[in-house]
Amino acid sequence: MQHYQFLRNLCFLLAICGLSGVVLAASTCNTCQDNNVKCLNETHFSFCSSGVDPDQVIGCPDGQVCTAYQRICMPQGAPPSCTEVNCPACDGSSPFVCISRTTFQTCNGKELGEQIIKCKDDTFCSMSSGKYCVDRCVALNLQSTFECDKEAT
Q1: In this predicted model, what pLDDT tens digit does every residue of 6-39 receive, in sequence order?
Q2: What's the rounded mean pLDDT across residues 139-148?
């Protein structure tokens, strides 16, 4: 009974976070931020200024990540502005792959289908469920994070 109550409370908290606009994942890469830099990945950035060569890539010191804060590089543990997301590819073992939290494409063996399919509102792509799209609690109970944790394009 306590396990059920914990899961119910966790789902409620996740739903509230999603509705209030709280961002649990890092923002997009390669976008100019308020601190006038664009993080290219977790540890490298370039300046967003007409006076600086945009092709100049600067790395954060070891153990630090690129952030949207005034202090560009901060110790690991600070929320990075950009994380590389590796989504699953067609490998012949699944009839589809998630290409974002809310979209998927079919697989024909190791070939990706052309059509992008969107999940219904308030459902999320889940390969491990085998049901294509499920509610948030089901998706996060099967795995600790979404199988392709990025926004739909």
Answers
A1: 444 444 433 333 322 233 334 567 889 999 998 8
A2: 78
For residues 80 and 75, what is the distance between their CA atoms, to the nearest angstrom?
A: 10
In the block, tokens 């999940």 appear at 119
Structure tokens at 140: 């996060």
Cα(153)–Cα(151) distance, integer angstroms: 6
Between the alpha carbon of residue 40 and those of residues 4, 20, 25, 28, 153, the distances in Å are 41, 28, 16, 9, 18
Give me the pLDDT at residue 28, please: 65
pLDDT in the model for residue 66: 92
What are the residue ranges spanned by the domains of the chain?
Answer: 25-84, 86-153
- Beta bridge partner(s), residue 134: 124
What phi, psi does 21 have (nearest 5°)?
A: 85, 10
Instruction: Give residue for tokens 């990075």.
Output: 80
Strands (E), 42-87: 44-47, 58-59, 64-66, 73-75
